[in-house]
Design a protein that fits this description.
The complex is a heterodimer of chains A (145) and B (380). Chain A is α/β, with parallel strands linked by helices and 145 residues long. Chain A contains six helices and seven strands. Chain B has 380 residues and is an all-alpha fold. Classes of the chains: A alpha/beta (145), B mainly alpha (380).
């Protein structure tokens, strides 16, 4: 059955995939960061907080708003951009060179990285490959929009 | 040989007699068993993570209570061990905690160890088979890789040359610095490998780049080196790696830049936390740090604007040498340059130095660049 995006179910499914691919994430190393994901849908935002610890996504929650002082950074974008990214991952098995997180967010034109503390912001890059591989696990999911 | 033992053991009769006596009789001294050291029972705070340095932060073995001035240990005795008479003075240059300590030092080291990667086997080099970049783009990519190899060779030397100068009581920082040297060696390796797989060989070394890098290598103090290397240079290089990932012409290049940026961001994290630590604990050092920044920003401005780098970026960002390519390349590269400077001041602001903009000549360059970009119609 297809998993709806955006939803906690989607991130929970990625969490299960991360656990099932533990060896890959162990190889990539510790990932200790809490960040927000915001998906703009029809002028409104749906906000999720992902808490990673050691090799795992420990907790996923949907919240009314994200307090930037409580997360390292937040990735925000319109649902169309997220959809394009996920569909690209589904097609290629991983994000192609135009659809990885850094490329989509670099100048903030498609996805935007917002943060309160630059040290928190830098955690996106400290754990970049793990975060990219995490989203690339979408290739193993059937997602509906 | 700079250090000669004060005893010629192979000719010392007492020493040789004792050695032979032990072999002959099996009689042992065992005084070391009476070491007046602390007994502790460290445990993993999180078994998924394993036994970390933080788990060992206990009693006399811990780092919390390291004094600002380490006077008791000038040898290679591990922190917490008994130090008998006769241990040589290792003559460490850095025995003040504020000169090198950073908040969370130990976790940066653990992260470094768990996130090591291998430039030979973790990069899908086979995907480059059949990839032929146009001459201009291929040469620009090779020039970028040549430039970055130069950067990473000095970035390897610089932390490595400070290692033997750091008091061994600061084992967590020493470990982090050793891991950093390894990270930088791997970066030099991966950039050299990529330059040589472009099919165009290496391009040209950069005098301005090397002048900037020499400043890092020849810093007068560890703290000066850290401000220049971890905070300023690597901060700029982190933005550069993200930009390079954005511009990368192949998935292989994307992967390379994602992996190197992880290491670089960790080094910047240490630099920020060291800078904060100094400002928090020794506010009187603020002026000294400004002086370090004056010089570091001067050379980082020059290095970031080096012809060999800027022109490579313009070509990679624009996709060629036609007028429209160059216009596009200049637009994107200028956005990157200004972003690089913005992020530098953002970091300093968050570290507790918001006044830096007012006295920084680099900030004046930023304002000048921004005005020039706006006049040229470049959207920021």
């Amino acid at each position: 059955m297809a998993i709806s995006f955006p939803s906690t179910d989607y991130f929970e499914a990625l969490k299960a995939q991360m656990a099932a691919n533990e060896e890959k994430f162990r190889r990539l190393g510790f990932i200790d960061t809490t960040f927000g994901v915001t998906v703009g849908v029809n002028g409104k935002a749906r906000n999720f907080i992902l808490e990673f610890e050691v090799f795992d996504l420990k907790n996923v929650s949907e919240v009314p708003a994200i307090d930037l002082k409580k997360v390292d950074f937040q990735i925000e974008g319109d649902s169309q951009v997220w959809r394009e990214m996920i569909e690209n991952i589904r097609r290629n098995g991983e994000a192609d060179s135009a659809h990885d997180i850094n490329t989509l967010a670099h100048f903030g034109e498609r996805l935007k990285i917002v943060y309160d503390d630059p040290d928190g912001h830098d955690k996106l890059y400290r754990f970049m490959e793990s975060i990219q591989e995490f989203f690339d696990l979408s290739s193993k999911l059937e997602v509906s929009f | 040989m700079a250090y000669l033992s004060t005893t010629n053991f192979t000719e010392d009769k007492d020493f040789i007699d004792k050695w032979l006596y032990t072999i002959r009789t099996g009689e042992m001294d065992l005084s070391w068993m009476k070491s007046a050291t602390e007994k502790i029972s460290p445990e993993e705070a999180n078994p998924r993570r394993g036994l970390t340095y933080r788990d060992l932060n206990l009693g006399t073995y811990g780092y919390t209570d390291i004094p600002e001035k380490v006077r008791a240990n000038r040898s290679y005795a591990p922190r917490g061990a008994e130090i008998p008479d006769g241990v040589p003075d290792a003559q460490p240059w850095v025995s003040r905690k504020s000169e090198l300590w950073a908040f969370n030092t130990e976790s940066y080291y653990e992260e470094a160890m768990s996130r090591q990667w291998n430039a030979t086997t973790d990069i899908p080099w086979d995907r480059l088979e059949g990839v032929e970049l146009p001459e201009v783009t291929g040469k620009a990519l090779s020039q970028l890789m040549t430039f970055l190899t130069e950067v990473e060779m000095i970035a390897t030397d610089t932390p490595a040359m400070w290692l033997p100068r750091l008091n061994p009581d600061f084992i967590e920082v020493r470990s982090f610095i050793a891991a950093q040297a390894m990270d930088e060696a791997r970066h030099a390796e991966v950039f050299r490998k990529r330059a040589l797989t472009t099919g165009w060989g290496l391009m040209q070394a950069s005098p301005i780049n090397e002048m900037a890098l020499k400043h890092l290598r020849d810093a007068d103090s560890f703290s000066e080196m850290s401000v220049a290397l971890h905070l300023v240079a690597e901060g700029n290089v982190l933005t550069m790696f993200r930009f390079s990932e954005y511009l990368s012409p192949t998935d292989v290049d994307k992967k390379i830049f994602r992996l190197v940026m992880q290491d670089e961001a960790r080094h910047v994290g240490y630099g920020m936390q060291h800078f904060k630590y100094v400002l928090d604990h020794f506010p009187e050092k603020r002026e000294v740090l400004h002086a370090h920044l004056d010089e570091a920003e001067n050379i980082s401005f020059a290095g970031a604007a080096a012809t060999e780098l800027t022109e490579s970026f313009i070509i990679l960002a624009g996709g060629g040498l036609k007028k429209e390519n160059i216009e596009q390349g200049v637009r994107v590269t200028t956005q990157f340059n200004l972003k690089q400077m913005e992020e530098h001041f953002e970091r300093l602001d968050k570290c507790g130095m918001p006044e830096r903009k007012e006295r920084s000549k680099l900030y004046k360059m930023y304002e000048m660049g921004r005005a020039a970009a706006e006049n040229a119609g470049i959207k920021l």
